[in-house]
Please model this.
Amino acid sequence: MEAIAKIIVVGNLKGGVGKSTLTSLYATYIHNVLKKKVIVIDADDLQHTIETIRKVEIEAGADSEKLYPVLPSNSIDAPDWLEKLIYDFDFIFIDLPGNLKQEGVVKSISMADIIIIPTSLSREDLDSTGKFLKILNEQIIPVRNSIGVNTDIYGILYKVRKRGKEYKEFIAEIEEMPIKFFNEVVPNSEVLKRQTSTYENVDYASKSFEMKDMLEEFKNIL
Model:
């Protein structure tokens, strides 16, 4: 039987929680370190953040022959692209708009094998995460289960300080959370944002964060 790609969505209903940043970090890691065939479908057609980063890097001298492909699309066409490319790659990332009412978004998410939900600890972001999980559990997971396929869902804290009071309160209740969270959290760092790349491995570390630890956790869920 021909192998098919794992489809990965880094998603939430809210913008500004690191969807495109994490997608770039993970895809670059798979390509450069794990040496797997990966493609990113940039279907967030209102921004096309990942495609924009890629264009800037090529203009700055990145060798396009050595890069994984970034495919600009829109949410309507995204499900068709997933079906067309599923036998050509090991992993397919799809960067989607946060608006689930936008045509094609729910269908694309329903094709995902792994869903990673980034969130800060603000009430607004946590509420958005809860609503997204409710939609997944009511509209998407049952359909996938009915055809015998699993969906792995993980949370990752973004723009969070481990030494902060909010984090300590969150950790105290983490066993009650409906999904498993990464142990590592991503800090609110302008340096990290500037280093985010679609071709270079990010070697960012701080007193409370190690990029290699987060990526090792990511490798373990693949």
Remarks:
- The first helix runs from residue 19 to 32.
- Residues 6-215 form a domain with the Rossmann fold fold (CATH 3.40.50.300).
- Residues 208 and 222 are 25 Å apart (CA to CA).
- The mean pLDDT is 93.
